[in-house]
Design a protein that fits this description.
About 45% of the residues lie in helices and about 15% in strands. It has twelve helices and ten strands. The strands form two sheets. The protein has a seven-stranded mixed sheet with strand order 3-2-1-4-8-6-9, sandwiched between helices. Strands 5-10-7 form a three-stranded mixed sheet. The C terminus is likely disordered.
Length: about 300
């Protein structure tokens, strides 16, 4: 009935797996849980290897670090059931009936379901405040809000999908790119796949440091421009690309990149401060995407 697939890299996931395992047993369904370590360190392999002792659970290790996108592809190919539930390693279900809620959506008329993200009300340490603030303000949305713009809230870290659909649409390039959820969202959009959003969130626990999240965000901007900027209808899916395409239409990308060169140190200082302004974060990414033709440095 259900394959639960978890790619992980240097993260302790026993709590997540045991929680999911208990819920699957209580719902009394056919299931499997497959954890795939993406060439994690020996310390984390030692901590996580006991997962394999649980019934219907398997624990595997990549021989090299493939990255999350290819690791998900490998997991899907290993899955034995027609429905797969992808979860990131650094999450935990908000509700005790998390699996039950997803099982209720296993219908022939359903293709893909997103349960949403949630963040703890208590703020983390300052070193992680940028990722927390971004998640709290931009990702933590009710299913009602997400359903109004369904392709803008495609988060693969909590996704129930038909196995055959995932294998057909997943990004196949073996190179590592960040921010590929928007690529998958566009695949769903372009194929006119109906996206369903439900109230079945996970807590996102593994917040990156401010500098790490900032750099990954810029790498995600590169991916968007490289793969998606010329795609028909992409402006309806992604606010950043919408703004960029509007500037490009009126030949304003070069002036914006010049202004960006002047003000980017001030923007970056705020973004990495103890109280980051997400509008400044948006402006930095917009200036950065306008400047990518001439320079790649952040």
């Amino acid at each position: 009935m259900l394959s639960i697939l978890i790619p992980t890299y240097n993260y302790f996931i026993e709590n997540l797996v045991t929680t999911l395992h208990k819920q699957c047993i209580s719902v009394n369904i056919e299931f499997e849980i497959i954890v795939l370590e993406d060439f994690s360190s020996e310390d984390y392999i030692f901590l996580n290897k006991n997962i394999a002792s649980l019934s219907n659970c398997s624990y595997k290790i990549n021989s090299v670090n493939f990255g999350r996108t290819k690791t998900r592809q490998i997991l899907a190919e290993k899955a034995k059931f027609d429905w797969v539930l992808f979860l990131d390693a650094d999450v935990i279900p908000v509700h005790d009936n998390f699996i039950e809620k997803y099982v209720s959506n296993l219908r022939d008329t359903t293709a893909v379901v997103f349960g949403g993200y949630q963040y703890d009300e208590k703020q983390p340490e300052i070193s992680k405040i940028l990722r927390y603030k971004y998640g709290k303000e931009r990702e933590e949305k009710s299913d009602t809000i997400r359903s109004k713009n369904p392709y803008q809230f495609v988060f693969s870290g909590n996704m129930l999908i038909q196995k055959k659909l995932f294998l057909a649409l997943n990004f196949k390039d073996d190179r590592k790119f960040y921010g590929m959820d928007i690529f998958f969202a566009y695949q769903l959009y372009s194929q006119q796949i109906v996206v369903q959003h439900v109230d079945n969130a996970i807590f996102h626990l593994g917040l990156e440091n401010n500098e790490v999240f900032f750099e990954k965000s810029l790498q995600s901007v590169v991916s968007r421009k490289y793969f998606l900027v010329n795609k028909a209808g992409i402006d309806s899916l992604n606010p950043l690309l919408k703004a960029y395409l509007r500037l490009k239409k009126y030949y304003l990308t070069k002036p914006i990149s010049l202004v960006f060169y002047i003000i980017k140190p001030l923007l970056k200082k705020n973004i990495l401060s103890n109280n980051p302004n997400l509008n400044y974060f948006d402006w930095y990414r917009l200036g950065y995407i306008c400047s990518l033709n001439s320079k790649q440095k952040t």
